[in-house]
Amino acid sequence: MKRFLVAGIGNIFFGDDAFGCEVAAELLKRSWPEGVNIVDFGIRAYDLAYAIMDGYDATLLVDAAPRGEKPGTVYLLELDPEKVDPCGDEIVDAHALTPVRVLQMIRALGGHARNLYLVGCEPARLDGDGVMGLSEDVREAVPTAVKMIEKFIADWTSGRGI
Fold first, then answer.
1. Largest CA distance in the chain
2. 103: containing domain
3. Is 6 strand, coil or helix?
4. Structural domain contains residue 162
5. Is residue 65 part of a domain?
6. Closest by CA position to 57, among listed 107, 120, 113
7. Strand partners, 39
8. Phi and psi (nearest 5°) for 55?
9. Looking at the 3D structure of the chain, how many domains does it have?
10. Among 16, 40, 51, 87, which has the highest number of CB atoms less than 10 A from its own CB?
11. CATH number of the domain within which 93 lies
């Protein structure tokens, strides 16, 4: 049986940064095949790093990730853990969790990440002033991300990959 982790990440107090948490909440309303684990990690970087090292066949991170696109744009990326600088400025921040920091932490702990993907959404705002709730564009992107993840998991668990 293949084991698959979907990890919602983000800070609910930073506006659109809560995208991964909101998507995880929607995914948790559905039933999944055995071996598929949906978790809202929020900003718990250590928990996510240890989960990724727990022998999953693939991990799909879900996060707000600025790439200069129109707010609400959803995309799927394959991440290469070998291209992450192992010596970033700050590995852990109690108020933020980024895929790069998690990969740095996994490397620092002597672990390895494999088959790692990101469903990202272009944020309209990443507020650090305690603004809760997604912007309209990002809120409307949640169903798109859910459908993308459903297809990804169906393809992965059937052996078709992405």
1. 44
2. 4-157
3. strand
4. no
5. yes
6. 113
7. 7
8. 85, 25
9. 1
10. 16
11. 3.40.50.1450
